[in-house]
Each structure stands twice: as structure tokens, then as C-alpha cells.
Design a protein that fits this description.
This protein is an all-alpha fold. It contains 17 helices and no strands. The radius of gyration is 21 Å and the shape is globular. InterPro entries: Na/ntran_symport (IPR000175), SNS_sf (IPR037272), YocR/YhdH-like (IPR047218). Keywords: Membrane, Symport, Transmembrane, Transmembrane helix, Transport.
């Protein structure tokens, strides 16, 4: 059993921190623009189906692996399957977290910059062109790299303090506030003239428009928004006591994730259609829509500043989890100082993130398979590494990990009908891996 100081202080703290790790940019930033680029309502429904039937079972599995081993990601697989190649899943997760954080932190830098500029009243202006404002900010190398640097500095400081004193305390205060502000934004957005067109786009599915590629993106989005596939949740659950129900915790995180994705869609798309914006705008969609929406409210700049600060926190809670898996892998196994490892890892991620930060400026014309460095890294992580990681985890749970330990961890503090476990295990052993394989190979025309 881990030392008490290395454990979560409460069930609520663990759930909110896990939700923070899951929600972040996945639900608030990426989900709206991915939905806009992939057909609206049909994409949303497929995303929900994948989240419940594939993402949730994998989230439970990562929780079981982490608490069952009481080790961070790399050591967990080594302990549960000693002297076997299965430990590569942990290494896969560390590499995935590193690549994900390298472009994720660029967006975190954008949010940080917008937050600072908004505090000084520099976002909402009469007749402002918010598309041009976004282009000006992301197209300035000095601004984007500065935002990336400060974003990484915040991550290093918080992760250096550890689980209880760093990540958990902040999550318990600020995550609920984000929900409140999102609901306020939704209530305003749906009252704009023309808002119903956006609601219909978001909630009325047109399955005829779906392609294999859209379905792969929906699968990748469900993994991205739940933070599964790179063993982040293995590391988080390794700090968890036995008095917490893993299925109930995973269910709470998944429900919150779907709910925030719904709120994000209802906040963004009514404004998009009301003001004649393009739903398939891409990564900048949120940064163009939020100022437009808040500019139509009394004290709009103040509320925009508060929302951006809460949004920044949600982004940080996700990035904390990524830096934590890297830090924990080298701290626990090698016995090194947490602060030094976090600082070193953060510096390396910062350097690796610079090409992605310059993808809208200096390196805009540099492409990898037709994609900028930012988009190529996003595609690699979201649509290849996360699905592959989830496939590996499902095979590990279904065919390698000790079944008695799996059952034991599943049933701790649960009180569920035994049939729930049987259903989940069947999903993990057969449905999850087969679905991932079919969707992935179907998207590239091999099935």
C-alpha cells in the first residue's frame, strides 16, 4: 500500500481530478470543432455511443490496473505481468502523454494568452474581427512561444507539489465553478436569433453524411476526452484507496464528460449559426465564438475573463495528468526528486512543443503528410496512439492480467450485481478490441 501522503485525500477529489484530466481541452476546445468538421449531430451520437460502450469500459480497466498494482503506468504493467513484453503498454503511454502534451500545451498557451489579454480588456471591442484576432495571436511566434513557456511553468510548479497538495485541492474548488459558468453561457447562447439552426445542426443527426473517417474521429475523440489509451488513469488510480468504487467513479467521470461536451455544443453552435460563422472552422472555433457570445452580454468582458480563467484551469487539470504520468514514471522507479523530474520533463516538453507552436507562423508551410506539425501530432496521438493504446489495454485485461485481481478490484466498495462485472469483462475481452480494429481498418479502406 502506498504511503498516505501519496494518496488522494477523498473520493470527490479523485473523481473531480480525474474528470479534470478527462474534460479539459477534449470536451471544451476539441469536441466542438471536431463535431463541426464531421457532420454535427451524427458525430455527437456516435461519440456518445463510443464513450459509453468503449471509453467507459477502458476507463474502468485503467483504474483497475493502476489500483491493482499500486504503481505508476510503466511499473504497473511490469508488476502485473513480470518478465513479459506487456510493460511496453506503460512506455507507450509515457510517449503518448509526451506527444499529446507537446501540442496540447500550445493550445493551453493560447488560452493563457486570451485570459491575460481579456483581463486587461483587450478582447471584446466594438466591430472587432475575432477571426483576425485569433490569427494575429497564433501567427505571432513570440506570443505563442511565451504562452507555451508560461503554461509549462504552471504545470511544473503544480505537479512538483504532488497529488494531494497540488492537483486535488485545486480541482475540488474550480471544477464546479466551470460547470456553473458553462450553464450561464448556454442560457445566453440559445437566446440569440438564429440559434435554433445551431441546435439542430448539433442535435439532429444526419447519418448519411457519416464516413469511415468521421467514425474513426469520433472514436478518437471519445478516447481523447476521457484521457484513456495512454495510461494516465492508471497512474491516477494508483494513488487511490480501496474504499472507492472504480466502476462508479469511472461512470461519474464519463457522465460529466458527456455533459460538458453537450454544454460545449449548446454554447458554441447557436452562436456559430446566429453570427454566420463556419462550424468547420477548425481549432480556432472556440476562440472566435466565445468573444462573440460574451460581447452580447452585460459586463461581457468581465464574464469572458472569468470564463477563460476557469477554462484555463480545466486545460491545466488535463495537462497536469500528462506531466504526472511522465514525472511518476521516472520518480518512482528511479527514486529521483519529484520537483527535479517535473522540471526536466516540462522543459523537454516545452522544447518539443515549439514546432507545433510555430505551425501558424514560421512553420506554416512545413507539412508532414500534408499536415502542419500541430495537426500531424494531433492526428498521430488522437487517431493512432490512443486507439492502439486502448486496444493494448483491452487485450491485457482480457487475456493477461490475473482474473481474480480484476474481479476483486472491480467489486471493492461496489455492491453491484455480479452480472455487471460479467458484462463489463465481456465488453473488454471481445467487443472493445474488435470494435477498435474494425473502426480503424475501416477508416483506411482495408475493411
Amino acid at each position: 500500500m502506498r504511503n498516505k501522503k501519496d494518496q488522494w485525500a477523498s473520493k470527490l477529489g479523485f473523481i473531480l481530478s480525474s474528470a479534470g484530466a478527462a474534460i479539459g481541452l477534449g470536451a471544451i476546445w476539441k469536441f466542438p470543432y471536431m463535431t463541426g468538421m464531421n457532420g454535427g449531430g451524427a458525430f455527437f451520437l456516435v461519440f456518445i455511443a463510443f464513450t459509453i460502450l468503449i471509453g467507459l469500459p477502458i476507463l474502468i480497466a485503467e483504474f483497475i490496473i493502476g489500483r491493482g498494482a499500486e504503481k505508476e503506468a510503466v511499473s504497473a504493467y511490469q508488476k502485473l505481468a513480470p518478465k513479459t513484453p506487456w510493460s511496453f503498454i506503460g512506455h507507450w503511454g509515457v510517449v503518448g502523454a509526451f506527444l499529446l502534451m507537446s501540442f496540447y500545451s500550445v493550445v493551453g498557451g493560447w488560452v493563457l494568452i486570451y485570459s491575460v489579454v481579456s483581463i486587461f480588456g483587450g478582447i471584446i471591442r466594438g466591430g472587432a474581427n475575432y477571426e483576425q484576432l485569433f490569427a494575429d495571436i497564433t501567427g505571432n511566434p513570440l506570443i505563442t512561444i511565451t504562452g507555451l513557456a508560461f503554461f509549462m511553468l504552471i504545470n511544473i510548479i503544480v505537479v512538483s507539489f504532488g497529488i494531494k497538495d497540488g492537483i486535488e485541492k485545486s480541482s475540488k474548488i474550480l471544477m464546479p465553478l466551470l460547470f456553473v459558468f458553462f450553464i450561464i453561457l448556454v442560457l445566453r447562447s440559445i437566446t440569440f436569433e438564429g440559434a435554433m439552426d445551431g441546435i439542430r445542426f448539433f442535435l439532429e443527426p444526419d447519418f448519411a453524411a457519416l464516413t469511415g473517417e468521421n467514425i474513426l474521429y469520433a472514436l478518437g475523440q471519445s478516447f481523447f476526452s476521457l484521457a484513456v489509451g495512454i495510461s494516465v488513469m492508471v497512474t491516477y488510480s494508483s494513488y487511490l484507496g480501496k474504499d472507492v468504487s472504480l466502476p462508479m467513479s469511472a461512470g461519474s467521470v464519463s457522465i460529466m464528460n458527456i455533459f460538458v461536451s453537450l454544454l460545449a455544443g449548446l454554447a458554441i453552435f447557436p452562436v456559430v449559426f446566429a453570427f454566420g460563422l463556419e462550424p468547420a472552422e477548425g481549432p480556432g472555433l472556440l476562440f472566435m465564438v466565445l468573444p462573440e457570445a460574451f460581447s452580447q452580454m452585460p459586463f461581457g468582458e468581465l464574464f469572458l475573463s472569468l470564463f477563460l480563467l476557469l477554462f484555463l484551469f480545466a486545460v491545466l487539470t488535463s495537462s497536469f495528468s500528462m506531466l504526472e504520468i511522465i514525472t511518476a514514471a521516472f520518480t518512482e522507479k528511479k527514486g529521483r526528486s519529484r520537483g527535479k523530474v517535473a522540471a526536466t520533463a516540462g522543459l523537454i516538453v516545452f522544447i518539443a512543443g515549439i514546432p507545433a507552436a510555430l505551425s501558424s507562423s514560421t512553420l506554416a508551410d512545413f507539412h508532414i503528410f500534408g499536415l502542419t506539425v500541430f495537426d500531424a501530432t494531433d492526428f498521430l496521438v488522437s487517431n493512432i496512439m490512443l486507439p492502439a493504446g486502448c486496444l493494448f489495454i483491452s487485450l491485457f485485461i482480457g487475456f493477461k492480467m490475473d482474473k481474480s485481481l480484476i474481479r476483486q478490484e472491480f467489486h471493492y466498495s461496489t455492491g453491484m450485481n455480479p452480472g455487471v462485472y460479467s458484462t463489463w469483462y465481456f465488453l473488454m475481452r471481445w467487443i472493445v478490441p474488435i470494435t477498435i480494429i474494425i473502426v480503424f481498418f475501416g477508416s483506411v479502406g482495408l475493411i
